[in-house]
Design goal:
The complex is a heterodimer of chains A (111) and B (114). Chain A is an all-beta fold and 111 residues long. Chain A has a single domain, classed as Immunoglobulin-like. Helix content of chain A is 0%, strand content 54%. Chain A contains no helices and eleven strands. The N and C termini of chain A lie far apart (37 Å). Chain B is mainly β. The radius of gyration of chain B is 14 Å and the shape is globular. Chain B has a single domain, classed as Immunoglobulins (Immunoglobulin-like), CATH 2.60.40.10. In chain B, a hairpin with a 2-residue loop joins strand 6 and strand 7. Helices cover 0% and strands 59% of the residues of chain B. In chain B, 30% of the residues are buried. In chain B, strands 2, 4, 5, 9, 10 and 11 form a six-stranded mixed sheet that branches. Chain B has a five-stranded antiparallel sheet with strand order 1-3-8-7-6, with no helix packed on it. The chains are: A mainly beta (111), B mainly beta (114). Chains A and B meet through strand 5 and strand 10 of A and strand 5, strand 9 and strand 10 of B.
Chain lengths: 111, 114
């Protein structure tokens, strides 16, 4: 059974903290994605990666960075968390671009 | 700038009724249109998908209707059940900078009442 796991379901951080969100997939997929989900805005792509050590900016990359040192792991980094980054963060992986498998999400609150 | 517009934002249907969710797009370069279903506490999961050279695709109680000339597509859930209560996202696949990306609609929260 395909599986995408995210390190935390809920996270509370303070403004200015550095935040790491981890994502691991066990399907040997080349492609991995980070989205944020906000009510009324759907899912918006933050960053994606089509290979190890490779990353590309999505539609809303400002304030975020990513790391992909191993094929199965894709990390999202908030260098200095701000309150407007309070959101649900979803990681996904795929072999085919449109058949993305999502993790359960991390609800991040920045106070 | 939202490239895929989804409506309605929320929908209430009685058990056994038909649920209809609509999406519209502008970019004619989109070449694949999937629908994702998300239950509370879970990530979205691929439900059904269609290519623009097909006008309709049916999988069980779920049907996608596609109107290429109008740049619209819709999801129909026949004989809706309380277990169908979820948030539904339409999406469109495009190539940008040499890479395929999914553009998601804003989502529709469906509640099916018994």
């Amino acid at each position: 059974d395909v599986k995408v796991t995210q390190s935390s379901r809920y996270l509370v951080k303070r403004t200015g903290e550095k935040v790491f969100l981890e994502c691991v997939q066990d399907m040997d997929h080349e492609n991995m994605f980070w989205y944020r989900q906000d009510p009324g805005l759907g899912l918006r792509l933050i960053y994606f990666s089509y290979d190890v050590k490779m990353k590309e900016k999505g539609d809303i990359p400002e304030g975020y960075s990513v790391s992909r040192e191993k094929k199965e792991r894709f990390s999202l980094i908030l260098e200095s968390a701000s309150t407007n980054q309070t959101s649900m963060y979803l990681c996904a992986s795929s072999r085919l671009q449109y058949e993305q498998y999502f993790g359960p999400g991390t609800r991040l609150t920045v106070t | 700038q939202q490239q895929v517009k989804q409506s309605p934002q929320s929908l209430i249907v009685q058990k056994g009724g038909i649920s209809i969710i609509n999406c519209a797009y502008e970019n004619t370069a989109f070449d694949y249109f999937p629908w994702y279903q998300q239950f509370p506490g879970k990530g979205p999961a691929l439900l059904i998908a269609i290519r623009p050279d097909v006008s309709e695709k049916k999988e069980g109680r779920f049907t996608i209707s596609f109107n290429k000339s109008a740049k619209q597509f819709s999801l129909h859930i026949m004989d809706s059940q309380p277990g169908d209560s979820a948030t539904y996202f339409c999406a469109a696949s495009s190539v940008s900078g040499g890479y395929n990306k999914l553009i998601f609609g804003a989502g529709t929260r469906l509640a099916v009442h018994p």
